[in-house]
Design a protein that fits this description.
The complex is a heterodimer of chains A (111) and B (120). Chain A has one helix spanning 26-29; strands at 9-12, 18-23, 35-40, 47-50, 64-69, 72-77, 86-93, 100-102, 106-110. By secondary structure, chain A is mostly beta strands. The longest helix of chain A is centred in the N-terminal third of the chain and has 4 residues, at 26-29. Chain A is globular and about 40 Å long. Chain B is globular. The mean pLDDT of chain B is 96. Chain B has strands at residues 3-7, 11-12, 18-25, 35-41, 48-54, 59-61, 69-74, 79-84, 93-100, 107-110, 114-118. Classes of the chains: A mainly beta (111), B mainly beta (120). The interface between A and B is medium-sized, with 27 and 21 residues.
């Protein structure tokens, strides 16, 4: 069982918005805000989409946004496009005893 | 641009030691403040952080794998290596090396991954 819980699947139609949740415990997140999100297409390596819960790396579309409230982090994708169909993983750096933990992943289907 | 490339045997027998190498270009594994990590993903399952090498020489491992894992560095080749001993079928996975950025603890660069199957 993953330390971070994500829904197994979400779906949406092109143009719509979806939100993927990532729920943990205080020990999963530690006292930090080092939550990151990764997009993984089939057969490919994960790609960083969000870091520090809400920041986007250079080159990532502004359709992707992140937030965190308490022990739940969220990834929102607005204006869904076919190319967004992929698996999404949250990850948290929880400090120098647990280090990094990942969520179980969410499969996004664009209808 | 930072590039990571994993290499190693694709098939390992049960009870033997899995050995993989990650060759890094565009950055140095022995400078900066990055956590050069190994991450694995069993087929159809989630990602699991295995451990890291920090430029200062520090290593740390996932507590669940700590007794079987060693991560080391070859400074002359700018490579990090992974050894996982006493492997079982559950260790079958895609193994990735990735750079954990020291300033935001996110994995910003990944290798393409290498599939390791544990089977006799």
């Amino acid at each position: 069982q993953s330390a971070l819980t994500q829904p197994a699947s979400v779906s949406g139609s092109p143009g719509q918005s979806i939100t993927i949740s990532c729920t943990g415990t205080s020990s999963s997140f530690g006292t930090y805000n080092f939550v990151s999100w990764y997009q993984q297409h089939p057969g490919k390596a994960p790609k960083l989409m969000i870091y520090e819960a809400s920041k986007r790396p250079s080159g990532v579309s502004n359709r992707f946004s992140g937030s965190r409230s308490g022990n739940t982090a969220s990834l929102t994708i607005s204006g869904l496009q076919a190319e967004d169909e992929a698996d999404y993983y949250c990850c948290s750096y929880a400090g120098s005893s647990t280090f990094w933990v990942f969520g179980g992943g969410t499969k996004l289907t664009v209808l | 641009q930072v590039h990571l490339q994993e290499s190693g045997p694709g098939l390992v027998k049960p009870s033997e030691t899995l050995s993989l190498t990650c060759t890094v270009s565009g950055d140095s594994v022995t400078s900066g403040s990055n956590y050069w990590s190994w991450i694995r993903q069993p087929p159809g399952k989630e990602l699991e952080w295995i451990g890291y090498f920090y430029y200062s020489g520090t290593t740390n491992y996932n507590p669940s794998l700590k007794s079987r894992v060693t991560i080391s560095v070859d400074r002359s080749k700018n490579q990090i290596s992974l050894k996982l001993s006493s492997v079982i079928a559950a260790d079958t996975a895609m193994y990735y090396c990735a750079r954990g950025a020291g300033w935001n603890y996110a994995f910003d660069y990944w290798g393409q991954g290498t599939l390791v199957t544990v089977s006799s």
